[in-house]
Amino acid sequence: MIDFLSVPRVVKSARTGMAATIASLAAVGAARAEEVIGHAYPGQMGLQPAVTPIAEEMHFFHNDILLPVIIVISLFVLGLLIYVGVRFNEKANPTPSRTTHHALLEVAWTILPVLILVLIAVPSFRLLTHQLVLPKGDVTVKATGNAWYWNYEYPKDEGGGFNFDSNVKADKDLQPGDLRLLAVDNEAVVPVGKVVRVQVTSNDVIHSFVVQSFGIRIDAVPGRLNETWFKAEKEGLYYGQCSKLCGKDHAYMPIAFRVVSQDQYAAWLASHSKAASAGRPATLADARR
Ligand SMILES: [Cu+2]
């Protein structure tokens, strides 16, 4: 939305029509490229940027607890293997020991992994609790999986009362800055810094609703209403994908959330709500008028 608002000013300042077009396209492209945050980058290491408290906690759990623990265990086992191979091969140790039991050693290699698991379980259950115990929401969005697109519904009692389909953009419709297989025709819009409760269900087969930067992953199951939440702390465009093998076009039903300021969100909600009550299909273009 910001990019579209800024275009007229760029057009006015440019001298010729052609230069204006190029300048405005560049402005749109630059604005779009900057604000698209939640997606994978070529050559990326690690996880997609975290913009919610839950995603940050997940990053801490993975990067600072699980990863060091598994690195130490892997190196220890590798060291043991090398030691056994060198010290106890046939040449170095022609007469093997006949020992079959060692009580202390057996107790140690049972207790030690248990202790490691208990150590991991504490932050793990804390994170699960934060994910599954939903705080009081400011905004509710219902996402319904369909073969193969998402439908987003904004409830009437929160100023909405409309729903729209969100389809992947075909290659021929891509604009500069659009990401292939992630860009959609209608993005879901939510305000920054607010608790968004996402209700997830499906109309046909089981899908899975995942946005990495928000740290949310929940199944969309027909006849069942699942719920998750996020609080995005940075404006921008965030992508996710259906993550359950759901059929032929499973790879072509991305999820796109545009996080905007409270004012922009209120304007977007009002224009969509107006369009819906006038009986027109609501599209994101309404918000740009
Ligand atoms: Cu799916």
CATH class of the largest domain: Mainly Beta
Calculate Rg over CA atoms: 26 Å
Q: Domains counted in the coordinates: how many?
A: 3
- Secondary-structure-based class equals alpha/beta
Give an overview in words.
A hairpin with a 4-residue loop joins strand 7 (207-211) and strand 8 (216-220). Residues 1-31 have low confidence and may be disordered. The chain has 5 helices and 11 strands; from the N terminus they run H-H-E-H-H-E-E-E-E-E-E-E-E-E-E-H. The chain is an alpha/beta fold and 289 residues long. The structure holds copper (II) ion (CU). Residues 145, 207, 242, 244, 246, 250, 253 line the site of copper (II) ion (CU). Copper (II) ion (CU) binds at residues 145, 207, 242, 244, 246, 250, 253.
SSE topology sketch:
Elements: H1 2-13, H2 17-35, E1 36-38, H3 53-87, H4 103-132, E2 139-146, E3 149-154, E4 162-166, E5 188-191, E6 196-202, E7 207-211, E8 216-220, E9 226-230, E10 236-242, E11 254-260, H5 262-277
Parallel strand pairs: 1-10, 2-6, 5-11
Antiparallel strand pairs: 2-3, 3-4, 6-9, 7-8, 7-10, 10-11
Helix pairs in contact: 1-2, 3-4
The protein binds copper (II) ion.
